[in-house]
Amino acid sequence: QVQLVESGGGLVQPGDSLRLSCAASGRTISTYAMGWFRQAPGKEREFAAAISRYGGITIYADSVKGRFTISRDNAKDTVYLQMNSLDVEDTAVYYCACRKVLVPSMDPNDYGDWGQGTQVTVSS
After folding, report:
1. Per residue in 70-119, pLDDT tens?
2. pLDDT number for residue 50
3. Beta bridge pairs of residue 65
């Protein structure tokens, strides 16, 4: 089983940037697709971004496309989510997840291992 730990969340103002990290342990994630999801209060968990095994394929939700960038460093077993031009609508707990195949997916049911989440709050 893969243990995932997210970090990098915080309180920022609209227009600011944050970079989230997801560090894996217990098993390498270098052969797996990885995803970032988020859940706002009172809402269902939703897809944000995902990346294939070597990073050649990335997919994004329309709501974050052009503002968020997912990347990975397989040597460090870490996945990142660079978030720019943050808006109050981006306020949520952000989770990373592991999908034990090569290609990413937008469906959270396709992911088997999840981190505990990191809070991102965008407020003026």
Report:
1. 999 999 999 999 999 999 999 999 999 999 888 999 999 999 999 999 99
2. 98
3. none
Integer Cα distance of 49 and 75 in angstroms: 21
3-state helix, strand, coil in the chain (%, to 5): 5, 50, 50
Sign of CA dihedral 92, 22, 58, 2: negative
Chain mean position to CA 79? 8
Give the whole-angstrom CA distance, residue 108 versus residue 124. 31
Residues 6+ positions from 65 with CB-CB distance below 8 Å? none
Residue 1 confidence (pLDDT): 85
Angle at 107 between CA 14 and CA 116, to 5 degrees: 60
Determine how many CB atoms are found less than 10 A away from the CB of residue 44.
8
Q: What is the pLDDT at residue 122?
A: 98
102 secondary structure, DSSP code: S
